[in-house]
Structure formats: C-alpha cells, structure tokens
Amino acid sequence: MEVEAAKMIGAGLAVIALAGVGVGIGNIFAALVTSIARNPAARGEVFGIGILGFALTEAIALFALVVALLLLFAL
Amino acid sequence: MSNSEGMHSPVEQFEIKPLVELSLGGYDVSFTNSSLFMLLAIGVSAIFLISAMRRADMVPGRMQGMAEMMYEFVAEMVRSNVGSEGRPYFPFIFTLFVFLLFGNMLGLIPYSYTFTSQIIVTFAMAAFVFVGVTIIALFKHGLHFFSFFVPAGAPKVLIPFLIVIEVISYFVRPVSLSVRLFANMLAGHTMLKVFAGLAVMISGAGGLAMTGSLLPFVALIGLTGLEVLVAALQAYVFTILTCMYLNDALHLH
Fold first, then answer.
1. Contact (Cβ atoms closer than 8 angstroms) between residue B235 and residue B104
2. Which of B11, B176, B237 is nearest residue A52 as measured by Cβ atoms?
3. Looking at chain A, which residue has its C-alpha nearest residue B184?
4. What pLDDT band is residue B3 in, cutting at 50, 70 and 90?
5. Rounded to whole angstroms, how far apart are CA atoms B205 and B226?
6. Of these four, A37, B142, B215, B227, which has the most CB atoms within 10 Å of its CB?
7. Is the pLDDT of residue B203 over 90?
8. How far apart are CA B19 and CA B219, in angstroms?
9. CA atoms within 13 A on the CB side of B91
10. Which residue in B237, B240, B241, B244 has the most chain A C-beta atoms within 10 A of its own C-beta, making it the best mutation to test that interface?
11. What's the confidence (pLDDT) of residue B6?
C-alpha cells in the first residue's frame, strides 16, 4: 500500500476513539442530570465535578485528534 | 490544505515568528511572538491584579470584586482538594492559574498568539509540576513514598501487575496534563479558523450565494463563545489536576 494512503486510513481509524468519548460524555451528563434532578441543592458542587469529568473525557477525543493530525501532517 | 488564492491555512496561526533574533552558545533563543505573549500574559495579569487591589476597600468595587473572586476561587480549590497543608503552595498554584487563564484568553483576541497551543510550553509547565510534586513527596515521606504505587487492600496475586499499571499511570501524568491543554487549544483555534475560512470562501462566490456565508459566520460566533468557555475551563482543569497531584504527594493514598 502507498504510504500516503496508509496515513490517511490510519488518521481515519484514529478518530474511531470518538465513539468511546461520545459514550463517555453522554454518561457524564446523564449522571449529572440525574443527580441534580434528585438533589437540586447539590447543583453547585456536582456541576463542578461534572465539568471536570467532561474535560477529562474530552481530552481523550483530543488525543485521538492529535494522533490523526500527526499522521496527516507531521509524520 | 492548499493555499489557493491567498487563503490562509488554518494552522498558520501557530507559527512561531522570531521578533528579535538572539543566539546563545549556539542555541536559538530568539524573542518570538510566543515569548511576547507570555510576557503580555504576565504583564496584563499583574497590572489587573495590582490596579484592582491598590485601593482595597471594605466594600469591593467591580475590579476588586473580580480580583477577589479569582483569589477566592483558587483558594477554595486548594482548600478543598489539598487541605490546610496545601497553603504554602497556594502562591504557585494561583500564579499557574492566572498565567494560563490570561494566556488562553489573550490568545482568543484576533491576530494574537496562543502560547498554550505549543506542546513544548504546556509540557514544560506540566513537567515542572510533576517533578516538583515528586520532590515534595520524596522529601515529606522519604522511601515510604513508594508505597504510593501499591494500592491498599489489593489481592496479593494482583500486586505485581498493579504496581506496573500504577507506575505507568504516574509517569503518564505530565504527558496527559500537557497534551490536554495543548490539544484543546490547538483543536479549538484550528476549528475557529476553518469556519472563518469557510465563511470567507462562500462570500467570495458573490451574488445571492453570498448569503450562504451567514451560516458559518453564525456558527463562528457560537464557537468563539465556546472557546472562551474552553479557555477558562482548561486553565481550571490544569490547576485542579495540579492540586490533586499535590494532594497525592502530601497525603499519599
């Protein structure tokens, strides 16, 4: 296979990680909504933790993006 | 990806341009646009905090209120994540937060430069935090520090594997800490430029087709709002993770 083609396929494969990240972020916000619905008083505290979890999960998506960009432009 | 008709590439904004050429012992230590914006971040934040707190009133005005909110925010973060033992490290953590916040925010101004979109900048900061935290832990706990890698209450059979996993996850910390900030900034700014380029490209079509550029333009406004959120959020995440690592160092498990 040509190297260029392999790189593009690899970059495409790398962003499959987004599926997992989608599930993860969905889970986080589902849990956030549930917990706030059950105990609205805890909103302030729970929201901060939720956003932290979101940022940590989002980072995985960005790792995938970085891998894809590295494959396309840097290697 | 191609630069047709003088269109700017979306990654052109990350280019480091030397402003003053300097060389020290064969190394290139030029004063670049990246260094300029680091100095600007320090300067703007220092001017903001000093001018806000110069006339400290009992009833704070708007400026003083903002400065005090920032202080309280970080102080509360240190207090709840590290506890009272974290107080000596508060100045460092506050500086880190303010530097990152202003760096990210200044980067959102059009034609400016985001120094946090360079992996070497974020990695240097993350490595500093990592090495510092490890040294603090070694000084405080001595050799007992290495018990950090053995989770309490694990079955004996699993311990060798768990130690390997714990050691790897410990050493991955500076990488994940730096790549998180860098990738967020890189991806966000690239996305903004791609949408801006799309709007410009469609408006170049002329006539009625020009109204089509309204859609990417509106999206661009929304995305800029999102980027402001991300800029603040990533400064927060970097700082709170620093707090958590410091907590691990001071209290082990």
1. yes
2. B237
3. A62
4. very low
5. 28
6. B227
7. no
8. 34
9. 1
10. B237
11. 53
User: Across the interface, do A51 and B180 touch by the CB < 8 Å criterion?
Assistant: no
ipTM of the complex: 0.72
DSSP letter for B111, please: T
Closest chain A residue by Cα to residue B81? A49
Q: Which of A22, A14, A66 is nearest to B180 (CA)?
A: A66
pLDDT at A1: 74
With a pLDDT cut of 70, the percent of chain A lying above it is 100
Pair B129, B174: CB distance under 8 Å = yes
pLDDT at B7: 62
| Least CB–CB distance from B240: residue in A52, A59, A73 | A52
Residue type, B25: G
> Can you give the three-state secondary structure of chain A, one letter per residue?
CCHHHHHHHHHHHHCCHHHHHHHHHHHHHHHHHHHHHHCHHHHHHHHHHHHHHHHHHHHHHHHHHHHHHHHHHHC
Residues in chain B closer than 8 A to A52 (CB atoms): 237, 240
Provide the b/e sequence for B15-26 (b: ≥16 CB within 10 Å): eeeeeeeeeeee
Contact list in B for residue A58 (CB cut-off 8 A) is: 184
List C-alpha distances in Å: B15 to B90, B114, B169: 34, 10, 32
Strand partners of residue B23: B28
With CA atoms as reference, report the closest residue to B81 among A24, A63, A26, A48.
Answer: A48
Task: Please say if the pLDDT value at position A31 is more than 60.
Answer: yes
Within its chain, how far is the Cα of B205 from the centroid? 39
- Please give the residue range of the domain that contains residue A30: 3-74
* pLDDT given at position B4: 46
- CATH number, domain at A46? 1.20.20.10
HSE (CB half, 13 Å, CA atoms) of B189?
29
Residues of chain B contacting A65 with CB distance shorter than 8 Å: 183, 187
Distance of alpha carbon A62 from the chain centroid: 7
